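In response to reviewer comment 3 from the previous cycle, which asked for concrete evidence that the modeling workflow produces usable outputs, we include below a single protein chain processed end to end. The sequence was submitted unchanged, and the resulting structure tokens are shown without manual editing.
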Amino acid sequence: MTTTATARSAAAPPPEPLPTAPAGGRAALLLLADGRFPAGGHAHSGGAEAAVTAGRIRDAATLEDFCRGRLHTAGLVAAALAAAAALGTDPAELDAAADARTPAPALRATARRLGRQLTRAARTVWPGDPGLEALAAAYPRGAHQPVALGLAAHAAGLGPLDAAHVAAYESTGGPATATVRLLGLDPFEATAVLARLTPVLDEVAERATAAALHARDAGTGALPAASSPLLEIGAQAHAAWPVRLFAS
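The workflow returned the following structure tokens.
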């Protein structure tokens, strides 16, 4: 390394550390990420039902491909929105940003239904939280689910990185569980898929949190806007099916 490069490296400010939850908040992280938390997610496949019908998910290997792609697109977007909400970014601005990043009307409707259910559950579990109360009053039909998730995480004493982890995990855990029911896939294999994806999930959560920190100064336009056209198209088609196992 040259002397000039060394000097530049020494002069560069260290990266801002990612926020973590305050002491004592980790159990709440487990609660929010638990599939048994009554937020309505069990009724939704995260696009897996449409992907199974189209033949894009056939086994554990194709489930892993689907979940990996979902993590880097819809999962990253949701994680960044949740992290930004946990940081205290204006929920109205975040909800508008979520709308702009969700072209399919079916997915926007699903996100608001899930947001309404999550807000209702969180207000019962953490009563009197001003952020949740204001969100419920401003969005009686539901804010976008990641926005509600970030505010629920804040009410639980969690930080933005924790909220991002929950959102990223939901983007894969839901489809994996749904595929077990849709294909009769061995649940051990589905869980192994999630285990193999944990390093990617950590990376996505950290990228999302870094973007949320940047958006505090740069505005919500700086949040990720990764697209997932097949998810959007599949969701819109799925909404018109006369018979389906999952709501979305």
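Residues 39 and 121 are 6 Å apart (CA to CA). We consider this sufficient to address the reviewer's concern, and the full set will be provided in the supplementary archive.
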